[in-house]
Amino acid sequence: MNISKHEQRVLHELALGGSIHHERLPNGKIQNVICYTRDGHVLTDCTLGVFQRLLTRRLIHSRNGLPYRASRLGIKSVRAQLNQR
Questions:
Q1: CA distance 67 to 24
Q2: Rg of the chain's alpha carbons, rounded to an integer?
């Protein structure tokens, strides 16, 4: 599966334990997304367009209105990256 560089960065952070918090409009559509790493930092690569592409490819999911996290398919699809820890 072809995943862009920005999608790859977001998916990698989600696989490490990050989450995507969202705000909805009164009609139910998602208006704004903010991606947090597991350390609490904000990832600026996560835009609404990147979020929509990850969602349509089923690489992320949300359960019971909680923040979005990486799905099993998303974790399998992410390429290994060096961790700077």
A1: 12
A2: 12
DSSP secondary structure letter of residue 73: H
Strand partners, 20: 35, 68
Encode pLDDT of 12-44 as tens digits: 999 999 999 999 999 999 999 999 999 999 999
* pLDDT score, position 77: 87
Burial zone of 44 (CB within 10 Å; 0-12 exposed, 13-18 middle, 19+ buried): exposed
Helix-strand-coil percent breakdown of the chain, rounded to 5? 30, 25, 45
Using alpha carbons, list the distances in angstroms from residue 55 to 14, 39, 40, 82, 84.
Answer: 13, 23, 22, 25, 27
Assess contact for 52 and 34: CB atoms under 8 A: no
